[in-house]
Structure to design on (345 residues):
């Protein structure tokens, strides 16, 4: 059992004069009466007052000592015990470009079969598939601080890295094609990467990484800040960037007049491959839902490290115990001193 700590230990110095005063009251001579002559008195042997008459004094002293201890504010002693867990800081950066509305059905399906699968909810577009895999990834990593950024023509932080995964999953559930307007849905990889970099903490030694998910090449030209310069920034901060190129070469477009895409799309991956190489991450290609799931499983096993989390410490005040004890002792002293142990001096 640990000894209590005191928030104001100097108050305990008041116990010194209290002990001295109590000792003096115990040892002082019995009260005497001065008379002009003792001839009329019978001599008797010296006797001390019975101890029971000193019980009220003892109780009062103990009560005062308890009050002093309460003023010093005793607290339960605590010991910080580090908890070792597997966990890192991860930012997910998700592409919200218009092409994320496309579908990537399995090869060999007819047009009618594709439409039937879409209308039955068995086949989701790229954005829906990405959201589902992000949820699955987050649920499997309870000890990681995970955040989410989205990018189109510009980029935004949906959530900084957090251990509140219920909150994060709630945000992921809100991901759909209507979050951004059509004119906002470009592919600004540089902005998406930069936003994720800025969201990661820089004040600890934990491993940090970014998972960049996109289905196209960088389409927002900015001569001052390119995907390569964003990758160099991440590398300078020790952040590994894993890039995932999602989507098949023959996407299926359904009920989307705005999205104009050729039947055969040559998805150029040089940019995101370079980002992964520059930062020490890995590039992955996911052509459909099952392939995306395999990629996320690979990253899940790839990114593990040990972090020491300090245990949550709660201090508990103990002053009510001596305070109540002192009040009881003082009340008992008053009761006994005015009843069965009453004295005239």
């Amino acid at each position: 059992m640990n000894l209590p700590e005191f928030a104001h230990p100097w108050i305990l110095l008041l116990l010194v004069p209290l002990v001295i005063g109590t000792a003096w009251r115990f040892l002082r001579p019995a009260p005497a009466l001065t008379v002009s002559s003792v001839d009329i008195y019978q001599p008797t042997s010296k006797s001390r007052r019975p101890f029971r008459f000193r019980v009220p004094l003892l109780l009062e002293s103990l009560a005062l000592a308890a009050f002093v201890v309460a003023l010093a504010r005793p607290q339960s002693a605590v010991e910080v015990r580090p908890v070792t867990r597997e966990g890192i800081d991860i930012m997910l950066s998700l592409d919200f470009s218009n092409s994320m509305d496309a579908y990537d059905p399995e090869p060999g399906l007819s047009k009618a079969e594709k439409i039937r699968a879409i209308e039955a909810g068995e086949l989701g577009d790229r954005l829906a598939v990405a959201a589902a895999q992000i949820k699955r990834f987050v649920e499997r990593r309870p000890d990681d601080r995970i955040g989410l950024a989205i990018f189109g023509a510009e980029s935004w932080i949906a959530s900084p890295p957090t251990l509140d995964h219920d909150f994060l999953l709630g945000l992921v559930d809100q991901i759909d094609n209507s979050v951004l307007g059509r004119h906002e849905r470009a592919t600004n990889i540089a902005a998406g990467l930069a936003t994720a970099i800025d969201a990661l903490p820089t004040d600890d030694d934990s491993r940090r990484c970014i998972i960049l998910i996109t289905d196209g090449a960088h389409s927002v030209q900015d001569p001052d800040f390119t995907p390569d310069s964003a990758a160099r920034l991440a590398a300078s901060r020790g952040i590994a960037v894993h890039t995932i190129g999602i989507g098949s070469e023959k996407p299926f477009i359904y009920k989307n007049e705005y999205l104009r895409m050729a039947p055969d799309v040559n998805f150029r991956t040089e940019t995101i491959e370079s980002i992964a190489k520059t930062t020490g991450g890995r590039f992955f290609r996911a052509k459909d839902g099952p392939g995306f799931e395999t990629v996320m499983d690979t990253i899940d096993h790839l990114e593990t490290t040990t972090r020491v989390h300090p245990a949550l410490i709660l201090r508990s005040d103990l002053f009510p115990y001596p305070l109540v004890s002192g009040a009881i002792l003082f009340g008992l002293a008053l009761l006994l001193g005015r009843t069965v142990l009453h004295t005239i001096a």
